[in-house]
Design a protein that fits this description.
Elements lengths: L4 E10 L5 E10 L6 E6 L19 E6 H7 L9 E6 L3 E8 L2 E8 H14 L11 H9 L1
Antiparallel strand pairs: 1-2, 1-7, 2-3, 3-4, 5-6, 6-7
Length: 144
């Protein structure tokens, strides 16, 4: 049995400068993918047809990105490409997710993200990720 870190937190999807929607986000970390974290959002918040979004995560939309990006983004603006993380006013952190369909800006309590990262480090300490990498499995998945 693999030990994982998983936590469901409340976040806000920023719709405009005066409007936001509360949503549940499930954060997860698995030692078989030691460099990555996952953020799962309810399918009803997708710009895609929800029927096209069903997957192994129970219908949620899942974004996968580097654990280090999340950790660094709590302190300074970080990220290139589809995912950006940056500190915000108060004790908040903004995660910006970019896709061809549009951009989503999600606000988290920084304490929730720190707690999740702390739990992920209990599973695989920072700097020891290489001990959990399975190059043969990764190559087999890549080649299909």
């Amino acid at each position: 049995m693999h030990v994982t870190a998983e936590e469901t937190v409340q976040a806000r999807l920023i719709l405009s400068s005066h409007r936001s929607a509360r949503l549940r986000v499930t954060l997860s970390y698995r030692p078989d993918d030691p460099l990555a974290v996952r953020m799962a959002f309810p399918a009803e918040f997708s710009l895609d047809d929800p029927a096209d979004c069903r997957g192994p995560e129970g219908g949620d939309i899942v974004w996968v990105f580097a654990r280090r990006l999340l950790s660094t983004g709590l302190e300074v603006p970080s990220g290139i490409g589809d995912v950006h993380v940056r500190p915000a006013l108060g004790r908040r952190t903004l995660v910006e997710l970019r896709a061809p369909e549009g951009t989503a800006l999600v606000q988290f309590d920084t304490a929730d993200l720190r707690r999740f990262l702390w739990r992920s480090r209990l599973v695989v300490p920072e700097g020891e990720e290489h001990l959990h990498l399975d190059a043969d499995r990764a190559l087999a998945e890549l080649l299909g």
